[in-house]
């Protein structure tokens, strides 16, 4: 029996959906992220993913950004075509089921960087009341986030804090507590997780405190590389490159390269994408992933995927009925990503992976107001029991089969055209997603992949490839079965 092409395509998707795909773990090796299997360097090509913003995170609502598989499927398909390999998610409810969303992002080669804190009361450090907010209930909350995501292979890391050192006065009191929370998270991971998941910090670009924040958090007390209070990576929320006329020098990127030039841990932009000039053209992408910065930086995370409350940072408009529309910023960012030399970005740096952290010392600190004490607060009352025994009734996530691949809500390009046949395309186990040269910003012609015919995908390693062996094997099975 001969089958039409569209039927074969549908059967192929169904066949592939029965397998639980898994990306390779990414580890920290000196100043680089490295693929645990291939030893290729991993550069973060990321986007902040927080539908509804912080105001949209409501306790007891039964939803967070990774709890609705239908919406995650839609967004994963659009991110895969954009070339994203990492999402940053800020506010999570560890009691919810995240299995399907995490598995969808895993299937398309997208990793997750997760904030353990939330804007809700008692779920983050309070810079104005550090001693009271650093308690066992707070630790139970952040450990619960670890439990919820520790078993997903695409969990790239956890942020122990975000812009906690920002307001005047915080630089003198907050740093030891960030190291304490980092220590507690790493201790918990060491005792209760199947692998070592990195823990780091996301800093505000406050230049008066930036160098000292980096030096304070990345040094090793007593010079020991096993110091659990030292961050494994350092993120910077930077919005200094504004508009197409900005340059490497005018944006101060040259200063950042100098500041982080001797880093012993991965450093990346945990947020970037100034919107003072609209639409954004994102020409800083070429600088960030170019030769002037890749020797120091490990990529960055665009702020942000979702347009929220007319803030003009979004790449995509999302609507209550599940439909979505791409913005011109999506198109512009895709064009920049498609110019990247992925093979160059994956090339390792042998010197970077052998670097050792400096010994902590007050001499590392330059500002008189910044803390130069490396006496880290002891865990609060009740914390040791959590560290030794684990939290009660943890909600452990797990990979599940992704049985739906075709996006059902309507998605429109920035030109208003309907994107047809939009679907995710699972990748082989050892691949992360990469920009693939496709233009998918609103073509209305029918196509199994939901893409236009203008851009030609790369022959290997792109987001559209399932792996030639897997593809041929699946097609052979289908043709044999229905001959």
Contiguous runs where pLDDT drops below 50 for at least 5 residues = 5-18, 444-483
Mean pLDDT: 88
In which order are the strands of the major sheet placed?
A: 4-5-6-7-8-9-10-11
DSSP helical segment count: 14
- Calculate Rg over CA atoms: 22 Å
Helix content: 25-40%
Helix and strand string, N-terminal first? Answer: HEEEEHEHEHHEHHEHEHEHEEEHHHEH
For the biggest sheet, the summary is: 8 strands, parallel, barrel
Q: Globular, elongated, flat, extended or rod-shaped: what is the shape?
A: globular
- End-to-end separation in angstroms reads 5 Å
The tally of strands reads 14
Explain what you see:
- By secondary structure, the protein is α/β, with parallel strands linked by helices.
- The protein has helices at residues 5-17, 69-82, 99-107, 130-133, 136-149, 170-173, 175-192, 207-218, 253-259, 284-288, 328-337, 342-345, 383-389, 468-481; strands spanning 26-29, 32-35, 41-42, 44-48, 86-89, 111-115, 155-162, 199-204, 233-238, 267-272, 297-302, 316-318, 324-326, 411-412.
- The strands form 3 sheets. An 8-stranded parallel β-barrel has the order 4-5-6-7-8-9-10-11. The chain has a 3-stranded antiparallel β-sheet with strand order 1-2-3, with no helix packed on it. The protein has a 3-stranded mixed β-sheet with strand order 12-13-14.
- A hairpin with a 5-residue loop joins β2 and β3 (41-42).
- α2 packs parallel to α3 and α5 (136-149) packs across α7 (175-192).
- The protein is globular.
- The model is unreliable at 5-18 and 444-483 (pLDDT under 50).
């Amino acid at each position: 029996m001969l089958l039409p092409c569209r039927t074969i395509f549908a059967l192929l998707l169904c066949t592939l959906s029965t397998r639980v795909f898994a990306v390779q773990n990414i580890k920290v090796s000196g100043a680089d992220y490295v693929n645990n299997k291939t030893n290729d360097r991993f550069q973060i090509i990321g986007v902040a993913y927080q539908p509804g913003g912080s105001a949209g995170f409501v306790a007891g609502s039964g939803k967070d950004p990774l709890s609705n598989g239908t919406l995650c499927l839609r967004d994963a398909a659009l991110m895969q075509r954009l070339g994203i390999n990492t999402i940053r998610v800020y506010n999570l409810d560890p009691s919810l089921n995240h299995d399907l969303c995490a598995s969808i992002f895993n299937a398309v080669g997208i990793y997750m960087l997760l904030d353990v804190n939330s804007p809700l009361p008692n779920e983050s450090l309070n810079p104005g009341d550090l001693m009271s907010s650093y308690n066992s209930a707070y630790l139970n909350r952040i450990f619960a986030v670890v439990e919820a995501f520790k078993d997903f292979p695409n969990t790239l890391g956890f942020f122990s804090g975000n812009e906690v050192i920002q307001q005047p006065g915080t630089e003198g009191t907050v740093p030891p507590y960030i190291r304490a929370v980092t220590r507690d998270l790493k201790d918990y991971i060491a005792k209760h997780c199947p692998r070592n998941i990195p823990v780091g910090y996301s800093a505000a670009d406050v230049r008066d405190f930036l160098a000292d924040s980096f030096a304070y958090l990345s040094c090793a007390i007593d010079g020991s590389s096993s110091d659990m209070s030292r961050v494994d990576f350092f993120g910077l929320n930077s919005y200094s490159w504004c508009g197409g006329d900005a340059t490497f020098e005018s944006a101060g990127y040259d200063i950042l390269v100098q500041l982080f030039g001797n880093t012993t841990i991965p450093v990346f932009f945990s947020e970037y994408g100034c919107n003072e000039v609209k639409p954004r053209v994102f020409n800083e992408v070429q600088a960030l992933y170019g030769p002037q910065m890749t020797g120091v930086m490990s990529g960055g995370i665009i702020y942000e995927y979702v347009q929220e409350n007319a803030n003009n940072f979004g790449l995509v408009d999302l609507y209550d009925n599940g439909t979505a529309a791409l913005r011109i910023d999506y198109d512009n960012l895709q064009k920049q990503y498609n110019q990247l030399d992925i093979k160059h970005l994956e090339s390792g740096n042998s010197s970077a992976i052998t670097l050792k952290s400096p010994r902590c010392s007050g001499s590392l600190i330059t500002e008189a107001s910044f803390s130069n004490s490396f006496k880290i607060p002891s865990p609060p009352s009740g914390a040791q029991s959590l560290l030794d025994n684990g939290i009660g009734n943890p909600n452990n996530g797990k990979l599940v089969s992704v049985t739906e691949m075709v996006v059902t809500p309507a998605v429109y390009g920035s030109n208003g055209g309907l994107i047809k046949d939009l679907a995710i395309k699972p990748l082989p186990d050892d691949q992360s997603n990469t920009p693939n040269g496709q233009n998918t910003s609103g073509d209305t012609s029918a196509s199994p992949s939901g893409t236009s015919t203008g851009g030609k995908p790369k022959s290997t390693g792109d987001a559209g490839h399932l792996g030639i062996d897997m593809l041929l094997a699946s097609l052979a099975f289908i043709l044999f079965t229905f001959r």
